[in-house]
Amino acid sequence: MVQNLERLADLIRQRNALEIEITKITGRPAGIGSIGEYLGAQIFRVELAPSATHKGSDGRFQGGPLHGAAVEIKCYPKREGLLDMKIVEPVPDYYLVLTGPKGTAISSRGQPRPWCIAAVYLFNARELAAAQRARGVAIGIASSIPNALWDAAEIYPKPQNPALTLSDDQRHLLELFA
C-alpha cells in the first residue's frame, strides 16, 4: 500500500509540473474545459471573453460565416451523448463541442480517460433548445442529445454540418490532438 501511495504521489507531482507548463501556454488553469476553450479560440478564430466566467458565452467568432456569433466551447474526453446547455439568457448562438471518442455503455471503472480530439460538433443553440423542448426533455446540465443531432452537428472529421466548413489548416491542427 505504501509503495502505491509513493508512486501515486510521484505521478501527481509530474502531472502538476505538466499543468504548470500548460497554463503557461493557455494563460488559464490546465483543466479540460480551459484547454478546450484555448484550442477553440486558436483553431476556430474565437476571441475569448476576458473572464472565464463571462455570462452567456465563452467568446465570439472573429471570421468566416459565423463572424460575430457568440459561442460556448465545450470539451469532453468522450462523446457520451450529453451536453451542458445554458438555460438562462443570454444563451450563446452556438455550442462548439470538442470530444474524444464515442463512449460505450460499459462501466468506466478502472478505465483511463485519456484526452484527445476525435470529433468536433457545432450546434445552433436555439435550434437545439427547440428540438429538446419538442422532445419534452430537460435543458441544462448534462442534457441528453440524440445521436442523430450529434451526427448532424459534426464538422470534424466528417463534415456533416454546412454551417462551418473547416480549412485544411484547421483539420491539420485538430489532427495534432487526435
Explain what the structure shows.
This protein is an alpha+beta fold and 178 residues long. 36% of the residues lie in helices and 18% in strands. It contains 5 helices and 8 strands. The chain has helices spanning 2-26, 32-44, 125-135, 147-153, 168-175; strands spanning 46-48, 59-61, 70-76, 82-83, 94-99, 119-124, 143-144, 154-156. The longest helix has 25 residues, at 2-26. The model has no long low-confidence stretch (mean pLDDT 93).
Q: Briefly, what is this?
A:
This protein has helices spanning 2-26, 32-44, 125-135, 147-153, 168-175; strands spanning 46-48, 59-61, 70-76, 82-83, 94-99, 119-124, 143-144, 154-156. It has 178 residues and is of the alpha+beta class.
